[in-house]
Structure formats: C-alpha cells, structure tokens
C-alpha cells in the first residue's frame, strides 16, 4: 500500500446537522466509503478526505466555519494536513 492510497478516516457523531456535513463531504470525495453504526458514521477514503466550506454551507443552508467541524468528529485516522477558513484536508503527511 503506497502513501497515496493509505486510507484515512473520520468518525462523526450521528445527527441531523452532521448528516448534511457528511453529504457535502461525500460529494467532494467520490471514492469515500460511508459506514453507519448506531450513533456514529465512519468515513474512509484512500489517500485523503477533503472538507470544503462552500460545499458544507450549500448542504446546511447556512454559513459554516471550519472550526465547527471539531464539534462533529469523534476521532480520525491520518493527520490534519490542512485546516484553514475554506478547507480541511485529512491525509497522511509521513
């Protein structure tokens, strides 16, 4: 398995608002797998997962700050390779 295909993941709490965030993330990451468990949604993808503020805002129907993402996640696999006002990227840096 190469670094580019090493899977990364995000586990998120199950909620109405988080379902919209997950739909936005899924739209921007077509290779991502979504697995639903009671109270938890597990996202995984080869290489990286990208969360775009504009996509999340379109699904939520309101402004969204990337810092709000901290309230939605339970755990993650990988590194936050980028986190600014417009985008969050989970990927392996090493």
Automatic annotation (TrEMBL):
**Gene3D superfamilies named among the record's database cross-references:** Monooxygenase component MmoB/DmpM (3.90.56.10)
Note the Pfam families from the entry.
MmoB_DmpM
Q: Which family does it belong to?
A: Belongs to the TmoD/XamoD family.
State the protein's name: Monooxygenase
Reading the lineage from the top rank, the first entry is Bacteria
Gene Ontology terms for molecular function = monooxygenase activity
Swiss-Prot/TrEMBL keywords = Monooxygenase, Oxidoreductase
Q: Does the keyword Oxidoreductase apply?
A: yes
Give the species.
Gordonia phthalatica
């Amino acid at each position: 398995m190469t670094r580019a295909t090493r899977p990364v993941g995000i586990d998120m709490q199950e909620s109405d608002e988080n379902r919209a965030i997950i739909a936005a993330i899924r739209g921007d990451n077509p290779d991502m797998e979504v697995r639903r468990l009671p109270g938890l949604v597990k996202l995984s993808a080869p290489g990286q997962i990208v969360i775009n503020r504009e996509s999340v805002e379109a699904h939520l129907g309101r402004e969204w700050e990337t810092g709000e993402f901290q309230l939605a996640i339970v755990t993650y696999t990988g590194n936050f390779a980028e986190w600014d006002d417009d985008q969050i990227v989970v990927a392996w840096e090493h």
